[in-house]
Write a structure and sequence with these properties.
By secondary structure, the protein is of the alpha+beta class. It has helices at 17-25, 67-74, 103-118, 124-134; strands spanning 4-6, 31-36, 42-47, 50-52, 57-63, 77-84, 89-100, 138-152.
Length: 156
């Protein structure tokens, strides 16, 4: 069961669990991942993601040397937000991240992300990103959300 909070008290209503899962699994919105750099300053990274309904986790594919990966090696706590600017609704929250470098773990997840955003794994961008995974140049970030703060301003 998901821990869902009202992300906008007084305006609209929060999603229920089914609506939260639907929002996270459909569409192609970016997730904005907030990390903290070595100086203690916030960094926000728009990323593609895959939400696993079996374990309620969010997965992100990225370069092993990316700023977000380097930040997470020092501090695994993140904030995240996925919102639809055209329909004022979204999901945000806080979580911990585990960095996966195992190619056998990462490739199937990276493929799911490529299919979600590009439609297939044959797309040239998908091929480039998957080759980086196969070559050990990329990692998968596994986000363990502590809660989901949701809002839907179309509902009253």
């Amino acid at each position: 069961m998901l821990k869902i909070l009202n992300g906008n008290p007084g305006f609209g209503v929060p999603f229920n669990e089914e609506e939260t899962v639907k929002f996270l699994t459909t569409g192609k919105l970016n997730l904005h991942l907030g990390t903290v750099n070595e100086k203690g300053h916030p960094n926000v990274h728009p990323v593609w993601y895959y939400y696993d309904t079996g374990n309620y986790r969010i997965y992100i594919e990225t370069s092993k040397q990316s700023k977000k990966t380097n930040n997470l090696r020092n501090n695994t706590i993140v904030y995240f937000c996925i919102d639809d600017p055209n329909v004022p609704r979204g999901v945000r929250g806080e979580g911990d991240v585990k960095i996966h470098e195992d190619i056998n773990f990462n490739i199937p997840i990276a493929e799911k992300i490529m299919i979600k955003y590009l439609g297939n794994t044959e797309h040239p961008i998908a091929q480039t990103l998957l080759n980086m995974q196969k070559g050990g140049q990329s990692v998968v970030l596994e986000l363990f959300p502590k809660y989901y703060s949701t809002w839907d301003l179309e509902k009253q």
